């Protein structure tokens, strides 16, 4: 940055934010050659930085004074956060520029200053190699400084070192303005990253959620994009959108945040949008609704903008605001927040659902407001946990309750929390009720049904299809969808179970309680005292629609009045949940036969678990009944066998499981629409009624555990799921062949079963056949025809002696085979391995086979092999090349694996490479030393390297949650984990300078675990491990942290020595790191340290879960369990030649475990 003439130091005015003194902190120091760029490029860059409110230091002196730089410039460099070096044609001719460069690189090393090289109209290799004009300059320097050649060499080295930093080249951009914008954007994102940790100090959990939003936004891509943010009221949608907006708005030419769109007219919102984006109030006069102004539309298409539309409640309102102006300029982003997912789906498929805070985030947020610090005093901690459970991760509730309880004594806390059980806090309810108010009457009714009945805690979980059937209304399906879209309910998983947030449910319950002072005049009853009162006093009315009661909540026996039900003519849902340890019970008149019921019952759902009587009152059988659940009842007969079968045309689900005294199945001959019958463990049943074959809509029949059942001839041919496990049948009826739609046939533990019918091959839809535990089954059935769908067969615990070749060859789709606990396992494996045409078998289980001593070469397509607790297993001949999961836990005599078999580098173009990989050798203490010292660690390095390379090599939608796990006995960290850390003395590790270069692939972990103390005391069954990674600068400030699901689950009660655990997870691969950092990716190389926090969850035999982070649980300290640890920074070598050399040498040697000596010099990873 200087000229070649001298000048008085008094003329040293600087542009350091115009005229700020050198004591001020600067955002950017600009080093440049004045005669090349001062009046052009550098001035443009300086003005662009200033327009973004970035404080830049630019020395405007035209003449250099002497050879050294002034103390003012020296301080300016030291006090700047970022140094920008503009390499130009004559940069090297200035000794001032070169001395500035040396000082800048010193600050980079000492203070971790960010350095951004700019190659302005010059190639980087000219700077690095000092050719052309740089060669001429150094020829003069060497003559001038011939007595101080060390200084010249120092300049040369500085130039060379600078070219290896991440920089920008002007030749890669079409115009200088575009190049300047790119530089400013990079600088701004790096500065923003430095400020993030303090800026969001009170927004717990915000960073991880912001990262996910920024991934959806994909800042840097040139397409215009709309994303949605949805979630229940108070969940933090506006806060999240605001944080993202504050982070990103300087990257755009125009920006606007429209808050509370729901409460403001569309016309006003549109006016504000136009005026803020274009800074021109007159532009509003050109805008008209529904008809687009070509002038305004053209301005939208020409300006890169960031728009946030917050709290939009209707598609009509959204359209009225942005109608005609959806076609924004390339790179523009629009964020829309709403409680209604349907509103968002009208404009985008990219929707982020804001989920509840986790337990730790919730406690931190609550304590921040309740105590003005992150953790409470010990006497308040228990009460704080109660609040966190009540709020269930809702940030608004946590903040409101924290502020409400702040500075109050502990007695008032307890009083307030008891009150919350009955009366929700008004400030929370006002926000939550907004979504409810947008429902129509039928949707409100559905909301109350779910809140009071279908989503009750610790009661039965209801699936969506069941609720739709029980409701019976033609609008039930759309009403449930609307409730889900408005974030009033959640439908989880493949089972479509309906759940509701605790606060929303409490709101619904409160609103029903307010219907009337008298419980009998309310629509729904669930409070034990209210239900007891109505049943005892017969005060129920036709207002009552649903009753639900858990007998464990009763405080006394309830004597039910004979007239308790007749007035409840609109009763639709009746549910009594009991438990064998319940202290109190319902006392029915005349053992239940004296009850009177409405003549025209609307009852649709009846559930009474542990029903205490021998027969069922006929008056309770309703023609509208959809689901009848009397599990664990004392029923002997349902109703009189001579009685005409009741009209049950609407009945779809019947559950009588565990009714051990039931001698016959109730007459269901008129239940023509029944779909599912559960009679499991009804031990007194002997036969299936013949009319079952006429129940043409019956899909699922569960008779498992009916230990006296011998006759199952009457089966519907339309069954899809049939479970006869644990019955006394000796043969499967030949009529089974007619069940062409049967998908699952479970015959496990049928100890009298001796043979299967040959026509089982007629079951063309069969996918799963379970014969495990059939102790008298000696022959596998002859499969004479191809079975194209049968994927899973379990023969565990049988005495079958062989697998007929003809049968196996007709199992064209067989992918899973369970041979665990088989006494004749060696014969079965021999038969199996001889059939090379089994090209779809991917999972094989031979665990607990005591007679198994050696595993022969297995089918090459196998991906999962389980050999747990094979106590006499000594060798495995060859692992299939496609194997991804091997579990050899507790094979304590296993010594050798003759050939590892897999070469992932050769197969890395295959999609199965992206599956998770796990090799477990827990407690295999006799493993060959070369296996544990060389083979297994080397195999782990291959798998990890290929997994880390895959996001760059492959464009695929395969499993992005893949993980690599290797566990084996030992106490040595493999040598390629270059960062060895003593867990007792340090949780940090230093990142090397410029660690995130172009060929960086990610991180992997290694730990040496010692669970001897846990094993000795047998306090827990297993241990769950999770890691949280934080990146830091040299001064210890946390710049970025996010949860990394590097998880493992150990049966720690049997782990009997030190074990090495190697872990890799794609959340720490290059691609996902880049996505997590979003626009800040260019600043990642500035991080100097990483800090790892470990969370251990200890799970007891009863399912109890205890957690502790970064410390100990009682006296079990984490350092005692994690005795060593290491981190591998993975780098790529494109051809993988060295790894291939190792593998080729290994294969030439025949794969013998004693002929495999990998060395450090042959490892692909750059160490």
TrEMBL record:
Transmembrane regions: none
| Entry keyword Repeat | yes
Q: Which GO terms describe its molecular function?
A: ADP binding; NAD+ nucleosidase activity, cyclic ADP-ribose generating
Q: Tell me which SUPFAM superfamilies the record gives.
A: L domain-like, P-loop containing nucleoside triphosphate hydrolases, Toll/Interleukin receptor TIR domain, Winged helix' DNA-binding domain
Annotated region Disordered: where? 1-24
Where would one find the signal peptide in this protein?
none
> Which Gene3D superfamilies does the entry mention?
Helical domain of apoptotic protease-activating factors, P-loop containing nucleotide triphosphate hydrolases, Ribonuclease Inhibitor, Toll/interleukin-1 receptor homology (TIR) domain
Q: What is its EC number?
A: 3.2.2.6
Q: Please state every residue range assigned to the domain named TIR.
A: 24-191
**GO BP field:** defense response; signal transduction
Q: What is this protein called?
A: ADP-ribosyl cyclase/cyclic ADP-ribose hydrolase
């Amino acid at each position: 940055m200087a000229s070649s003439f001298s000048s008085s130091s008094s003329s040293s005015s600087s542009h350091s934010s115009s005229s700020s003194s050198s004591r001020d902190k600067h955002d950017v120091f600009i080093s440049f050659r004045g005669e090349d760029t001062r009046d052009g490029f550098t001035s443009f860059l300086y003005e662009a930085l200033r327009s973004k409110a970035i404080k830049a230091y630019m020395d405007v002196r035209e003449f250099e004074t002497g050879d050294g730089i002034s103390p003012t410039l020296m301080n300016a460099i030291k006090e700047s956060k970022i140094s920008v070096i503009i390499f130009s044609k004559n940069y090297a001719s200035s000794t001032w520029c070169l001395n500035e460069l040396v000082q800048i690189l010193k600050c980079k090393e000492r203070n971790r200053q960010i350095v951004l090289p700019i190659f302005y109209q010059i190639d980087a290799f000219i700077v690095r190699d000092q050719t052309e004009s740089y060669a001429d300059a150094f020829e003069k320097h060497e003559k001038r400084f011939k007595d101080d050649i060390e200084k010249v060499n120092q300049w040369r080295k500085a130039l060379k070192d600078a070219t290896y930093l991440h920089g920008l080249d002007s030749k890669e951009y079409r115009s200088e303005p575009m190049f300047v914008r790119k530089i400013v954007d990079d600088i701004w994102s790096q500065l923003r990253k430095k400020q993030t940790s303090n800026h969001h100090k009170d927004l717990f959990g915000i960073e991880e959620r912001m990262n996910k939003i920024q991934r959806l936004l994909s800042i840097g891509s040139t397409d215009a994009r709309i994303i949605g943010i949805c979630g229940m009221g108070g969940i933090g949608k506006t806060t999240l959108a605001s944080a993202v907006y504050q982070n990103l708005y300087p990257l755009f030419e125009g920006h606007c945040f429209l808050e509370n769109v729901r409460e403001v007219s569309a016309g006003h919102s549109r006016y504000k949008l136009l005026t803020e984006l274009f800074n021109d109030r007159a532009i509003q006069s050109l805008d008209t609704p529904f008809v687009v102004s070509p002038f305004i539309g053209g301005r939208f298409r020409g300006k890169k903008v960031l728009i946030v539309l917050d709290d939009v409640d209707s598609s009509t309102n959204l359209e009225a605001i942005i109608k005609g102006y959806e076609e924004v300029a390339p790179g523009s982003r629009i964020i829309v927040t709403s409680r209604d997912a349907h509103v968002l789906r009208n404009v985008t498929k990219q929707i982020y659902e804001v989920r509840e805070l986790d337990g730790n985030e919730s406690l931190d947020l609550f304590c921040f407001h309740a105590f003005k610090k992150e953790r409470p005093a010990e006497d308040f901690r228990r009460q704080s946990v109660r609040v966190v459970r009540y709020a269930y991760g809702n940030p608004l509730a946590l903040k409101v309750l924290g502020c409400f309880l702040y500075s109050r004594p502990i007695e008032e806390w307890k009083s307030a929390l008891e009150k919350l059980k009955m009366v929700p806090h008004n400030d929370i309810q006002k926000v939550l009720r907004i979504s409810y108010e947008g429902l129509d009457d039928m949707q409100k009714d559905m909301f109350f049904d779910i809140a009071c009945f279908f989503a009750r805690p610790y009661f039965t979980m209801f699936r969506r299809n069941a609720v739709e059937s029980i409701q019976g209304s033609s609008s039930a399906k759309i009403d449930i969808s609307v409730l889900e879209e408005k974030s009033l309910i959640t439908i989880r998983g493949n089972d479509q179970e309906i759940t509701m947030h605790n606060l929303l449910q409490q709101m619904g319950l409160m609103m029903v309680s307010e219907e009337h002072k008298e419980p009998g005049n309310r629509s729904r009853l669930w409070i034990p005292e209210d239900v007891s009162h109505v049943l005892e006093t017969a005060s129920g009315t036709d207002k009552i629609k649903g009753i639900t009661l858990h007998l464990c909540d009763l405080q006394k026996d309830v004597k039910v009045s004979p007239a308790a039900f007749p007035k409840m003519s609109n009763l639709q849902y009746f549910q009594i949940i009991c438990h064998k340890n319940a202290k109190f019970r319902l006392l029915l008149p005349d053992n239940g036969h004296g009850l009177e019921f409405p003549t025209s019952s609307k009852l649709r759902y009846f559930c009474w678990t542990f029903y205490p009587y021998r027969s069922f009152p006929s008056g309770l059988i309703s023609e509208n009944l959809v689901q009848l659940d009397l599990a664990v009842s004392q029923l002997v007969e349902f109703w009189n066998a001579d009685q005409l079968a009741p009209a049950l045309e609407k009945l779809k689900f019947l559950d009588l499981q565990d009714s051990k005294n039931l001698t016959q199945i109730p007459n269901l001959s008129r239940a023509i629409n029944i779909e599912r019958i559960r009679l499991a463990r009804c031990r007194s049943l002997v036969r299936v009624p013949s009319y079952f074959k006429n129940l043409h809509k019956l899909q699922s029949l569960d008779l498992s555990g009916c230990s006296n059942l011998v006759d199952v001839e009457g089966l519907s041919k339309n069954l899809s799921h049939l479970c006869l496990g644990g019955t006394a049948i000796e043969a499967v009826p030949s009529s089974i062949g007619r069940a062409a739609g049967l998908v699952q046939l479970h015959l496990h533990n049928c100890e009298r079963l001796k043979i299967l019918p040959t026509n089982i091959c007629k079951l063309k839809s069969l996918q799963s056949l379970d014969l495990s535990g059939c102790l008298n089954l000696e022959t596998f059935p002859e499969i004479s025809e191809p079975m194209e769908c049968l994927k899973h067969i379990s023969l565990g615990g049988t005495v079958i002696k062989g697998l007929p070749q003809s049968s196996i060859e007709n199992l064209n789709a067989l992918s899973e085979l369970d041979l665990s606990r088989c006494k004749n396992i060696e014969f079965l494996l021999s038969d199996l391995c001889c059939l090379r045409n089994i090209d779809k078998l991917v999972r094989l289980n031979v665990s607990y086979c005591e007679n198994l001593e050696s595993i022969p070469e297995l089918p090459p397509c196998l991906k999962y092999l389980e050999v747990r607790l094979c106590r006499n297993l000594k060798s495995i001949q060859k692992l299939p090349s496609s194997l991804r999961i091997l579990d050899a836990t507790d094979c304590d005599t296993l010594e050798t694996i003759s050939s590892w078999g897999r070469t992932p580098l050769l197969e890395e173009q295959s999609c199965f490479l992206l599956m998770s990989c796990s090799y477990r050798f827990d407690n295999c203490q006799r493993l060959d030393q070369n296996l544990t010292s060389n083979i297994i660690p080397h195999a782990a390095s291959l798998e990890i390297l290929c997994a880390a390379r895959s996001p760059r090599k492959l464009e695929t939608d395969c499993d992005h949650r893949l993980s690599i796990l290797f566990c084996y006995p030992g106490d040595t960290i493999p040598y390629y984990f270059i960062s060895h850390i003593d867990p007792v003395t340090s949780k940090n590790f230093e990142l090397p300078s410029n660690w995130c270069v172009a060929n960086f692939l990610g991180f992997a972990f290694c730990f040496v675990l010692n669970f001897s103390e846990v094993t000795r005391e047998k306090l827990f069954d297993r241990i769950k491990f999770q890691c949280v990674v934080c990146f830091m600068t040299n001064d210890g400030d946390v710049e970025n942290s996010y949860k990394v699901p590097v998880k493992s689950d150990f049966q720690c009660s049997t782990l009997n020595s030190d074990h090495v655990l190697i872990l890799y997870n794609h959340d720490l691969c290059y691609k996902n790191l880049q996505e997590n950092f979003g626009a800040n990716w260019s600043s990642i190389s500035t991080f100097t340290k990483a800090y790892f926090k470990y969370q251990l969850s200890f799970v007891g035999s009863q399912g109890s879960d205890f957690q502790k982070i970064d410390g100990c649980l009682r006296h079990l300290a984490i350092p005692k369990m994690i005795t060593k640890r290491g981190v591998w920074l993975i780098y790529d070598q494109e051809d993988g030649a060295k790894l291939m050399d190792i593998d080729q040498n290994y294969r030439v040697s025949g794969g013998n475990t004693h002929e495999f000596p990998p060395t450090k010099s042959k490892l692909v990873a750059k160490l």
